[in-house]
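We treat protein structure as text, and this decision shapes the records that our systems exchange. The remainder of this section carries one protein's record, kept here as part of the documentation:
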Amino acid sequence: MVVNTRRCEIEIIREILSLATRGAKKTQILYKTNLSYTQLQEYLSFLLNSHSLEIEEAGNTRIYRTTSKGLETLKDINKILDDLQPRGSY
């Protein structure tokens, strides 16, 4: 079976939630995920609306942080993606 090397939406969500566990600025997430600004806005909006991310105001800086719901989602995504990884021959 040939597997596409491009990231799927779930992998991108996992990456964003993982980065935000320690708190991350939008530009940090943008550069580390290698998304366009428009793409990042869509993912952040989705994750904020689903209460998986929250925004902390620190002076003039907005910090994105993964919520407890987001941490549970991240744990579930990691489990699913790990289960789908090919193992040795059967």
